[in-house]
Amino acid sequence: QVQLVESGGGVVPPGGSLTLSCVVSGFTTDDYAIGWFRQVPGKEREGVSCITSHGKEYYQETVEGRFTISRDKFKNTVYLHMTNLKTEDTAVYYCATEPAVIVGDIRFLGSWGQGTQVTVSS
Length: 122
Prior knowledge:
Blueprint: E1 3-7, E2 10-12, E3 18-25, E4 34-39, E5 46-51, E6 57-59, E7 67-72, E8 77-82, E9 91-97, E10 99-102, E11 105-108, E12 116-120
Parallel strand pairs: 2-12
Antiparallel strand pairs: 1-3, 3-8, 4-5, 4-9, 5-6, 7-8, 9-12, 10-11
């Protein structure tokens, strides 16, 4: 089965940076799209970013210019590089498969991991 393990979360001040990692296993090939969503307790999950098998990147508008998604196929790892963090970025971040890019939204139809907490404190 598909396994995704996120790490790298922590507590950072506004304006700080953080890099999340997600190790992926269980895919039959390494040609897949993958991304990140985040969720605050009691609220709907929010798509953050995704990257296709060809390396095309998509971002939710509130993070574009601040976050960068990348992947290392040799390590089966996807990253989310976050800079200029805001308090509004506080959430549990999940790595997930099968992203669907819709105007103004990124949704995930596949699997996701346990998440990693990101807290931006003022």
